[in-house]
Each structure stands twice: as C-alpha cells, then as structure tokens.
Amino acid sequence: MDRGVAALRGIRDRVVGSDPGLNRLRMALSAALAMATTLGIEYLYATATHAGPQGTLIAMLLGTVMAMMGSMALSGTGVRPKVRTAVFFPPAIGIGMLAGVAVAGRTDLMLCVLVAVMFVAVFVRRFGMAFFFYGFMIWMGYFFAAFLGAKLSMLPALLSAVGVATGWVLLLSLTVLRTNPRRTLRRVREAFGARARAVARASAELLAADPRRHARLRRRLHARQLRLSEAALMIEGWSAEPGALPVGWSGPALRRRLLEAHLAIDALAAAAETLAEDGGELLPAAARIAGHLGRREYGAVEYVARPLLEPRTGTAAPGTGRWPAHHLAAAAVEYVTLAGTAAAPPPYDDITDEAYDPVVTLAQGNLPGSAAVASDVAARGSHWNPLSRLTLTTRQAIQVAVAGTLAILAGRELSQARYYWAVLAAFIAFAGTATRSETSIKAVNRVVGTLVGLGAGIGLAHLTAGHTGWVLVVIVTSMSLGFYLVNVSYACMIFFVTIMVSQLYSVLHEFSAGLLLLRLEETALGAAIGIAVAYFILPTSTRDTVESARRAYFRALADLLDRAAPTRPDGTGLDALARSLDHRLQQLTLVARPLTRPMTWGVNSRLVRHRLTLYAATTRQARALIRSGFPVPPELADTCTALSRTATALAESTPRPDHPVPGVTQALTTAATTLLTHRPHCPGTPLPPITQPLVHLRQLLTELAMLPPTPTTSTPANQPTTSPR
C-alpha cells in the first residue's frame, strides 16, 4: 500500500476513534451554526421592531445564549421530544426574568433571591436532562433581568427575543441539525473499528519494542482496550434509538457481532502480551501481523498469518513462541473475516427479533457520567446528619446555595461590581460533577483555563478592536472549539470562554487587562469556595462512590458466571451480561479516575491504578468465557459456580489484607480443586478452551480479594488449547 494512503488512513482512524459518532464535532458545529445564525435573526428582529442600539444588543446577547443552550438541549433524535422540550424554554427563562424584575434595584433582596434561584436551578435536575437546561435558563433569566436592572415593561421585548431564538433553534434542530440515528450508529461502529486497529497497533509496538519499554507499552495497550469497550457501549446505547439499526439487523444480533469482534481483538492483545514476555523466533512475524491489522492492510494480514496457522505435529519447542503466535494469527484472521462481513446481517440461530434492552442509556449521545453511580451513595456524616441521606440533587442544591452565599460575601469584598464571577465559578463547579474530587478538579481546571486564556484574550482583543465582524467570528469560533473540547478538557473549554469574554467586553467598550485580571481573581475565589463546600458541606465521598461501583461490578460478574452454567443455555442473555460487565467496569474506572492522580491526598494512586488494571483483566477473561464456547462443560460447572460465589461475597463485603471476606477462600479453593481434578494427565493433550479463562479468573479474583496467591493449574506456553470456534 502507498505510504501516503496508509498515512491518511491512520489520520482518519485517529480522528474517528477519538470522537465516536463524531458527537463532539456535531455538537460544536451545531452550537456554532445556531449561535451565528441566531445573531443574525435577532439583529433583523430587533431592527424590524425598532428596538434601538441597546435593545438590539440585549436581544442579540440573549438570543445567542438561548441558541447555545438550546443546541445542546435539543440534540436528541426524536421530533416530539424536541418540541416538548423547546416549548418550555420561554417559560423557564421567563420565570427567572420575572423574579429578577421583582427585585431589581434592591441589592440585598436581589442577592438573597439569587441564592434561592441557584438552589432551584440545581434542585430541578432530579426531573431529567431537560430540567438540567431549564434550571440554567431560570438562573440565566434572573441574571439578565436583575443585573441589567430590567423593568416590567421590558419583559415582553425580552421574552419575544427568547421566543424568536427558541423557534429558530428548534427549526434548525429539526432540519439541518437533525441527528440521523442510523448514520450516527454507522459512525460509532467505524469508531469501534478504528479503536480496534489502535489496539492492534499498540500490540505491534509491544512486540517490536525493547523489553525495558514493555511496562509502559502494556499500560498503553490496556488503555486502548478500555477505549474499545467504551465504543462498544456507545454502540449498545445507539442501537436502541428508533431507526438506528441497519435493515435486516436486530439489536441482539449487532451486539453479538460486535462482541465477536471485541473478543478477537482481546485474544490478539493477550497473545501479544504473552509473546512479548516469552519471546521467540516468531515474534517478528507476529509483530508484522498486528502492524498490518493496525494499518487496515487486511490482505497482508491473511498472507503473513497463513504460515503460522498451518497445522503442525508434535509439541512446540520451548522458546519458539509457536502457540502464542498461532493464537495471535488466528485472532487477527478472525477479526479480518468479521470486518469483511460487517455489512451483512449474521445468521444466528439462537437470536430472534425479540425486544432489545440496552445495558446502558446514553446521555446526549455520550455514556452517562458519575452521577449514575453517586446517586445511590449517601453523603459523609449520615449517622448524625439527616440531610446526608437526601438525594444527590438535593444535596448539591444545598451545596450550591451555601457556596453561592459565601461567594457573594467574599466576592463583594474583592469587587462590588464584578462579584458575580465568583458566584458563577462556585455555581458551575457543581454542574456535571457528583463527587467532591470531581468538583475540586473542575474548579481547579476553571482557574487554570482562565489564567491561560488571559494572554490569548488580551492579544486577540487588541487585534479585533473596532472590527465588529471579526469580533463575532472570534466569539462563535471560540465557543465552537470550547464545545468540541469540553469532554476532553474542561480547562481547554474555559480557555476559549475567556477569549470569548474578552471579545464581548471589547464590544461593550469595557475591555482592559485589569478587568480580565479581576475576573481571574474572582474566579479563583469562587473555585476555592466551591472546593471547600464540596469537602465540608454534605460531601459525596469519591471513595464511597468507588466502593459502590466496585460492589455493582462484582454483582455483574457474579451474574455472568452464574449464567454461564450449563443448566442455563441462554446465549443472548450471556451477551447482554458481558456488555453489562463492560458498563460496570466503565463506571468504576470513571469514578475512580480522580484517585489515580498522585496529588490526591491520603490515597495510594499507584495501588488504585494497579487494581483498576486487575478489574479490566477480569473483565477480559470473563468475556473470554463466551469466546471459549457455550455451554460450559458439566465437569467445569462447579468452577463457574464457585467463582460466582466468590464474586457475590466480594460484592457484599470490602476485602482487606488482614481481614479476608468470609466464604471467599473456600470458594476459590473449590474452583482450584475442580480445575486440577479435570486437568489432562497426558502431555500434549489439548485443554478445553474454557480452562484458560477460568484459571485466570481464579487468579485475578484471588488478588482482588487480597489473598496470598496459591498454586493452581495453568496452560504452559507449549501446551495447546482447542480452538474456540
């Protein structure tokens, strides 16, 4: 293949793989188009109604804010849900404006009501995603009316501007910005393929690298395998959207096909790790196979893999790496075969057109955040503080009210006119976060983004001064880039928001370097208050949330192992349980991420990362049970049952090195005894394909239970296992 074509394919894979379904790109472009066109629509409307210069500016600002929030709130696929959501935009912002008009000019009352509005804006999030945006609109309407000193006579004009923006954004979301679920699902599947090839490239790098680099390259390989699982979960969620599935496909069939491809990539990565550790004369050939697969050179994969797949007699000599290389080649060829038939619906005899129940429900096209786990976690101090047992949204509403009050008091000491920046920083710190560590990290990122954005904001403000057209271009572009990067780095989004604010104050003829410096100081003050409140007022502990996710993970593992018994021949249910385990791993990794940073106080971040690696390895071995064939042989059913009891016990109690979980040691001993009893006694006799994952699962559960390792059966490098298919 031409190097230029290969390079372009590699670039495309990285772009597609980094943004499954191009969801971030679509959101950024939608926000840019909505804001840019709404600016023009509001200008024309204000001109037609003779609103005057100030009225025109207010209408354009208000319309742009509505366009920004509306483009996010109306990002779904259904027409009726969008209309139903958009209808309440004007009432939501109108409620805030009415409250703002009622207290305008009375500072103390205005600030008291501001705290109440912040409480309500967070409290209503309990009613669903739409109310997340309604809450922001109530807060924004109050801010506009109260801080601009709006009069009651101005409300019709302001609400008219809101209505125009709402109607326009709704029209855009139903036409040019409408999400096509089938096209999006196809793009997410392309992202799955791109991430699968990224795993293959990481495997090739591991096989070709110096042994001194193996530890780092293994971590990279495992990280890419986690990203592959996330793409599979997004496919799981998008498959439930009406009209998303291709003609002839069902949700369970697509799940099975993706699971087969996922298992093939898992097998390739596992073989690469074994081969990299053992070495051997076949290592270069295996590296070429993985490299060709990573570059999408499928014909070359089959050509290079063919010699490794030829049947040979006798036992492989030690040091040749014959069996790991054979398994890698078989996995690569299997993935190539599946990729070549990706468009054709698979003829699975055990899958019917039954109702599809996804294991994960997406939030605005993305996997749900940590709130899905933390919602069931009580705040610290629940034994003495009854407020700690309130729901997460209610606790956050109280936290926001306290943080807002403190930000007002402290911010006014710094500036009587600009204290609202501190209030905004404290308020936003609790948006999209659930635990105190997440809130702290978001608050710090806000300060960092503001600090870094000061220089760029000042420089661009001087360049665009006096050029209104360029100012608008910079504002729209900055917000678009901010939306694109918000899920990658919140600090990057705030960097572009700071540039946008600089341009806005330039248009208002209030721009100065001192003003931006004051914004930084107020933001830092509000962020510090938000962190303090998150830690000391009804705190949702990150460790408690991780513990909740850990227990849910082991319950999902126990369900999968229990279903794998031969008395429950339900392949479709097993597929769903495998994806459910992936989802539990993704949640555990998400909520534990703050604890993997060395800066976290009182936490052994290296141990946390190691245990997350064990959970990921356990998940891969559990998936391998499916690859090994179904059902489980009756003679090994006791092993599955014993491991299921182990997982159940670990879900009910927290293991400690000095306090083993009751029942775990006995269950693991039973599993080991069963595996040893049914191990072939004749050298060279192929092991049942299910033996290998069961052995690894027992070893991993022993380590996760914090028990000392005990000897058990294993598959030597030169002993084959029967083919899984």
What is the gist of this entry?
Helices cover 69% and strands 0% of the residues. It is mostly helical and 725 residues long.
How would you describe the overall organization of this protein?
- The protein has four domains: 11-178, no CATH class; 181-312 and 329-340, no CATH class; 394-540, no CATH class; 542-704.
- Helix content is 69%, strand content 0%.
- The protein is built from 27 helices and no strands.
- The relative contact order is 0.08.
Largest sheet geometry: none
Gyration radius (Cα, Å) is 29 Å
- Total strands: the figure is 0
Overall geometry: globular
Strand percent estimate: under 5%
Number of domains: 4
On the 0-100 scale, what is the average pLDDT?
Answer: 88
DSSP helical segment count: 27
Please write the string of helix (H) and strand (E) elements: HHHHHHHHHHHHHHHHHHHHHHHHHHH
Level of helix content? 55-70%
Keywords:
725 residues; mainly alpha; 4 domains; 27 helices; 69% helix; 0% strand
Q: How do the strands and helices of this protein lay out in sequence?
A:
Layout: H1 3-18, H2 23-48, H3 52-73, H4 79-86, H5 89-103, H6 107-123, H7 129-147, H8 155-174, H9 181-208, H10 214-238, H11 251-278, H12 283-294, H13 298-309, H14 322-340, H15 371-374, H16 392-414, H17 420-428, H18 436-464, H19 468-485, H20 490-507, H21 513-536, H22 542-563, H23 571-592, H24 605-627, H25 637-652, H26 664-677, H27 691-704
